[in-house]
Amino acid sequence: MTPEMPRATRAMNEEAAEKYTTFEAVGGDWAEIAKEAEEIGEEHIVVNLGPVHPSTHGVLRVQVEMDGENVKEVRASTGFLHTGIEKNMEYRTWTQGVAFCTRMDYVAPIFQEVAYCMGVEKLLGITDQIPQRAQAIRVLLMELNRINSHIVGIGSGGNELGATTMLTLTFRLREDYMRLMEDVTGLRMNHEYIRPGGVLNDLPEGFIDYARKLLPGIRNTISEMQDLTMKNPIFIDRHRDVSVSPLSSMMALSMTGPSVRAAGVPWDLRKTQPYCGYEKYEFDVPVADKADGYTRIDVKFRECYESLRIIYQVLDELEKTEGEPIMVEDKRIAWPAQLSIAGDGQGTTPEHVKEIMTESMESLIHHFKLVTEGFRVPAGQCYTMVEHPKGLFGVHLVSDGGTRPYRAHFRDPGFNNLQSLAIMGEGGLLADLIIALAAVDPVMGGVDR
After folding, report:
1. How far is Cα 161 from Cα 183, in angstroms, rounded to an integer?
2. Which residue, of 121, 301, 369, 415, is most buried by count of CB atoms within 10 Å of its CB?
3. What is the pTM of this model?
């Protein structure tokens, strides 16, 4: 209130102020902390990284309490990309659920599709009835997707440190990967290709030769990125003994994936609890002796080469099983038509359209009921797991006997791994916190769900 203010206005404001009581909010030991900080004379500041910042790997907010350049405390705040996927799935059929879960970790969508469909198949009791060719196609796409996920994580982390060439090479590899995925599924991302009982359509004609043509280029890009990093003195200095996470802390936080293997634990579900026929393929589980920024990336590079080993074995098997079924025989579950992938995208095969529209009323009724209503799943619950690029990915499904999930809940490894951010970052420099985030490599669509 200024002296120049009219007397009537001042009187009105004074009268209004008397009607309200003001309070000073205090609590905890903040007053003592503030007094102590003032006495010590140190400059403490809270820095917000994100939620819209390229170095946070998505809409992640990281609150960092700083003492100069030193990190005193790290708090990761999630929830900015919450999409309600799990709740939405309760209002869609079991098959339609694939369209939701594929959009969680959008860098590794196939793993969510496979894990979810394995859960539905477990509830249906048809796990042993899935055709071998369908299982081989699932393994092929998962290993291609594993390479893409690892390389995108490594390349984006390098770009955040100023190595733009790393991101350029990443997208060169990613483009070859997407060409392969689009050739099989018709889509570059969010494929909705894995279905309960098998896969949506067989490999297109000429795909195996096309894959063998592109795979050498993918391998060369991996090698080129590896040469640019693992023997680079600047890269070594920025990553060696930086963002270290002790094995004991990782076990306490339920961390999984490359970080744990970098600490020396060769735990990989593809070996310990094989699924989709992984027991048939020869591959190793790379490990290191310490989980720091350097060894985590080293493990991911070596896992990419192991994925290539598996892919070549799967291609040989797919050549031998050409023409075999890719969906369960039970027509009460099997999707009624295979997709016809052409230049205009995805569509039902012309033969199926001809049958249901001009030849068989029974086929039309069956198609209509299966697509709109879906199939019923016996009441019960199950938990299934797959080895996601970032660690253990789990699916808990509950059925009340209807055509929709009663409950669908996912354990995304990125959410658990984010808990280690404080252990890796506190006590270091702010610049090293970016390396810690890149080591975790979270995709917030999977973290928030």
Report:
1. 34
2. 121
3. 0.87
Sheet hosting strand 61-67, strand order edge to edge: 44-49, 61-67, 70-77
* Reduced DSSP (H G I as helix, E B as strand, rest coil) percent helix, strand, coil of the chain, to 5: 50, 15, 35
- Percent over 90 (pLDDT), the chain: 51
**Token pair 């060894």 in the structure block, residue:** 295
386 closest CA partner among 156, 168, 133, 194: 194
Distance of CA 207 to the CA centre of its chain: 26
Q: Average pLDDT for residues 73-83, to the nearest whole number? A: 86
Q: Which residues contact 6 (CB under 8 A, 6 or more apart)?
A: none
Residue written as tokens 């609150």?
63
Quickly state the pLDDT bin for 3 (edges 50, 70, 90): very low
Query: How deeply is 153 buried, as exposed, middle or buried, from its count of CB atoms within 10 A (0-12, 13-18, 19+)?
Result: buried
pLDDT in tens, 23-47: 454 555 656 666 666 666 556 788 8
Residues 6+ apart with CB under 8 A from 306: 283, 284, 285, 286
Check: CB of residue 113 under 8 Å from CB of residue 98. yes
Q: Is the pLDDT of residue 348 over 90?
A: no
Collect all residues with Cβ–Cβ distance below 8 Å to 84 and sequence separation of at least 6.
Answer: none
How far is residue 189's CA from residue 166's CA, in Å, rounded to a whole number? 22
Taking Cα atoms as reference points, which of 441, 421, 362, 372 lies closest to residue 151? 441
pLDDT at 67 over 90: no
Q: Which of 139, 259, 117, 135 is nearest to 192 (CA)?
A: 117
Token code pair at residue 279: 């027991």
Question: What tokens does 358 get?
Answer: 């001009």
